[in-house]
Design goal:
The protein is built from no helices and twelve strands. By secondary structure, it is mainly β. It has two domains: 60 residues, no CATH class; 51 residues, no CATH class. The strands form three sheets. The chain has a five-stranded antiparallel β-sheet, with no helix packed on it. Strands 8-12-11-9-10 form a five-stranded antiparallel β-sheet, with no helix packed on it. Strands 2-6 form a two-stranded antiparallel ribbon. Strand 3 and strand 4 form a beta hairpin. It is globular, with a radius of gyration of 17 Å.
């Protein structure tokens, strides 16, 4: 491609919600943390090497009997969502957190699959996580 020499009509959308193809054998629950695996398919959130966090599932999708990409899941990529944690304190507001599993975040994990920052302290075991995926 070469640089533009005239105006271009560029397709646009907000990108707050996007669809991802679901990995074969995966079941993703509504309201869960969602990652993509090393092959680029959506899977339940987990502290797994090669996973990248993409958002929170807006729907439940069961691709347990399907192949990679047979189904898609809509994920929300922006907002503050309540998730479980451990050893949280009010002084953790602003701290980065990682995916531990599909409903739990942690300040430190083995593979550090980043998923956002603590925006709201609720209790020692729950926080509002800002997942803004800009």
């Amino acid at each position: 491609m070469t640089a533009l020499n005239s105006d271009r009509r560029t397709p646009y959308r907000e990108g707050t919600e996007l669809e991802f193809k679901v990995a074969g054998g995966a079941r993703i629950y509504a309201g869960s943390l969602v990652c993509v695996n090393a092959a680029g398919y959506a899977v339940p959130g987990a502290d797994t090497a090669g996973f990248k966090f993409v958002g929170v599932a807006r729907e439940s999708v069961d691709n347990a009997g399907g192949a990679n990409g047979d189904k898609t899941v809509v994920v929300r990529r922006k907002g503050v969502f309540r998730f479980a944690g451990a050893g949280l304190a009010i002084t953790d507001i602003g701290a980065s957190v990682n995916v531990s599993d599909d409903q739990t975040t942690a300040k430190s994990t083995s593979n550090n699959v980043a998923c956002g920052k603590i925006a709201e302290y609720i209790s020692a075991t729950e926080a509002g996580i800002d997942i803004d995926m800009r």
